[in-house]
């Protein structure tokens, strides 16, 4: 019998049969609530009422000039490449309102990468930010897409527009011309719809298009709100007999909007909560700190690599003093980093917030984001990914899909309305991703002392003489070294031993560290089979993708050149 883990009190959730736009604009926020603010120019902002108007104007422009949705929903794919700007959420909803499909491209895409994604998504319309106009134009030209079908989204104060590169179209229609979205209540349509395509990182091959429906995004929005709202009720509204309103929801958009963390975290989640998103154009460390303090950010989600910098940087003082909630995901974070980062947040960082803030979430693009989360008010600093969210079922299985016992490692499988409908135009990859009706995440996890932990990606685990070595474990140990700013571990092929762990280190000071010092440090803390037999190399930076995940394939290529390796790494 399968060993299935569920939320203890909300194993099933009644989801509303409603489309995403109707859900989000039906929130409790007043029409004059400011939802989006340009961090560099706070006077440039968007209220709920103004956003609804802009959404309907974009929908009208896309339908009128490009026939988006004219042949029915779920067909017309609009590829979007942009850094953060306040009109991006309106663009998302406008594409959906017109009946189109929003396909998010990484802002770091090259011309060839963008062209490949446009082709794979069967898109004939491209929207870009001003910084990506040249890239978008060249990618479109490669595919025979005319300049009139490449639109530039401009959120500059007083210049809001969605103009074609040819200069003949502004798809942001005048205020008098609007197209309201269709209210959808049919459960089958909601489940089988296609409104967003996110593209996997492609770390093990070409990126695959993750198909998300109204049902997926509505489910993620409703499910993730359950624990937060229960916590707020207990924390702020039951203090004696007096009503104590919760702190205002203020967050800082700095992660790429092409990733589920950015798309849901800035374009969807805050909208449902009636919170304010302060938009950075793109991530810069000094700007992140400045805006976090200036806008008194209360809710903060970022990746472990940024929390690592927060934990070690002398620049951080009271910048995060107003936080009442902080979370991380996208890559594993061990308990040591969790503790050291948390020490710089909220009240413990010199402000008036709570003492234990930082919790982990776990999820994928294929699960519409988080499927576990650390419950608010239930602090953890052991590196746990938190509890299974309401409406989610989880299993841990071996290579034969047999459920393992608590304490044993295995692949995490998920069943939930949060799981995608499959990969776009890729039935073979879709079949390979499922075992029956269970989605195979590719993450190795373990249940230990009643808590869930992610060990590493299945495809990134190393094998030394048949014994499993998790790069994330070694990286966690290396992060603790005071002379190490950042570290990533890969495996070198060895014909007799399998994989030899090799560390790439960004040192605090290159003149004050040695490879032998690092190897000795690790050997004192791990079993013999986990030692850095592949050596240590010092570098200026670790290559990462747009959301801070290490690009291990780039490090493997580097190792091949450094060591003259000709076999496949």
From TrEMBL:
<dbReference type="InterPro" id="IPR020845">
    <property type="entry name" value="AMP-binding_CS"/>
</dbReference>
<dbReference type="GO" id="GO:0016405">
    <property type="term" value="F:CoA-ligase activity"/>
</dbReference>
<dbReference type="GO" id="GO:0019748">
    <property type="term" value="P:secondary metabolic process"/>
</dbReference>
<dbReference type="InterPro" id="IPR042099">
    <property type="entry name" value="ANL_N_sf"/>
</dbReference>
<feature type="domain" description="AMP-binding enzyme C-terminal">
    <location>
        <begin position="473"/>
        <end position="549"/>
    </location>
</feature>
<dbReference type="InterPro" id="IPR000873">
    <property type="entry name" value="AMP-dep_synth/lig_dom"/>
</dbReference>
<dbReference type="Pfam" id="PF13193">
    <property type="entry name" value="AMP-binding_C"/>
</dbReference>
<dbReference type="InterPro" id="IPR025110">
    <property type="entry name" value="AMP-bd_C"/>
</dbReference>
<protein>
    <recommendedName>
        <fullName>4-coumarate-CoA ligase</fullName>
    </recommendedName>
</protein>
<comment type="similarity">
    <text>Belongs to the ATP-dependent AMP-binding enzyme family.</text>
</comment>
<keyword id="KW-0436">Ligase</keyword>
<dbReference type="Pfam" id="PF00501">
    <property type="entry name" value="AMP-binding"/>
</dbReference>
<feature type="domain" description="AMP-dependent synthetase/ligase">
    <location>
        <begin position="37"/>
        <end position="424"/>
    </location>
</feature>
<dbReference type="InterPro" id="IPR045851">
    <property type="entry name" value="AMP-bd_C_sf"/>
</dbReference>
């Amino acid at each position: 019998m399968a060993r299935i883990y569920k939320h203890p009190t909300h194993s099933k959730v009644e989801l509303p049969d409603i489309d995403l736009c109707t859900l989000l604009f039906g929130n409790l926020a007043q029409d004059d609530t400011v939802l989006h603010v340009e961090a560099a120019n706070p006077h440039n902002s968007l209220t709920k009422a103004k956003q609804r108007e802009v959404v309907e104007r974009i929908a009208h422009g896309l339908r009128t000039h490009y026939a988006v949705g004219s042949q029915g929903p779920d067909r017309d794919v609009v590829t979007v490449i942009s850094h953060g700007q306040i009109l991006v959420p309106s663009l998302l909803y406008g594409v959906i309102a017109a009946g189109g499909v929003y396909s998010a491209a990484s802002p770091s895409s090259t011309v060839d990468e963008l062209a490949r994604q446009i082709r794979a998504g069967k898109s004939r319309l491209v929207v870009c930010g001003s910084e990506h106009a040249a890239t978008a134009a060249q990618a479109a030209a490669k595919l025979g897409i005319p300049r009139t079908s490449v639109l530039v989204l401009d959120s500059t104060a007083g210049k809001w527009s969605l103009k074609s590169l040819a200069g003949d179209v502004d798809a942001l229609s005048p205020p008098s011309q609007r197209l309201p979205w269709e209210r959808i209540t049919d459960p089958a349509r909601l489940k089988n719809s296609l409104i967003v395509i996110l593209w996997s990182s492609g770390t093990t091959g070409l990126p695959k298009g993750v198909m998300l429906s109204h049902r997926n995004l509505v489910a993620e929005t409703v499910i993730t709100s359950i624990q937060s709202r229960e916590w707020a009720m207990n924390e702020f509204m039951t203090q004696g007999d007096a009503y104590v309103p919760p702190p205002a929801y203020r967050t800082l958009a700095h992660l790429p909007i092409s990733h589920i963390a950015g798309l849901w975290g800035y374009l969807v989640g805050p909208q449902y909560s009636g919170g304010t998103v302060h938009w950075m154009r793109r991530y810069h460390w000094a700007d992140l700190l400045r805006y976090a303090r200036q806008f008194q950010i209360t809710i903060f989600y970022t990746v472990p690599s940024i929390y690592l910098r927060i934990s070690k940087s002398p620049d951080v003082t009271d910048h995060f003093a107003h936080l009442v909630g902080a979370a991380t995901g996208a890559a594993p974070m061990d308990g040591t980093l969790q503790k050291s980062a948390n020490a710089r947040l909220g009240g413990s960082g010199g402000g008036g917030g709570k003492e234990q803030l930082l919790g982990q979430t776990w999820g994928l693009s294929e699960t519409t984001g988080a499927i576990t989360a650390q419950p608010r008010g239930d602090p953890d600093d052991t590196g746990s990914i938190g509890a299974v969210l309401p409406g989610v079922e989880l299993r841990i299985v071996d290579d034969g899909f047999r459920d393992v016992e608590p304490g044993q490692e295995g692949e995490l499988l998920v069943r939930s309305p949060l799981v995608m409908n499959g990969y776009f135009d890729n039935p073979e990859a879709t079949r390979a991703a499922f075992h029956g009706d269970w989605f195979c995440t590719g993450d190795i996890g373990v249940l230990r002392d009643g808590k869930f932990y992610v060990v590493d990606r299945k495809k990134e685990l190393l094998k030394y003489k048949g014994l499993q070595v998790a790069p994330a474990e070694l990286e966690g140990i290396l992060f603790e070294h005071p002379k190490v700013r950042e570290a990533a571990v890969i495996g070198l092929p060895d014909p007799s031993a399998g994989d030899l762990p090799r560390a790439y280190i960004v040192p605090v000071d290159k003149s004050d560290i040695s490879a032998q010092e690092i190897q000795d440090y690790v050997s004192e803390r791990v079993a013999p089979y986990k030692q850095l037999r592949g050596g240590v190399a010092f570098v200026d930076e670790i290559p990462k993708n747009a959301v801070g995940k290490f690009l291990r394939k780039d490090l493997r290529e580097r190792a091949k050149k450094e060591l003259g390796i000709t076999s496949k790494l």
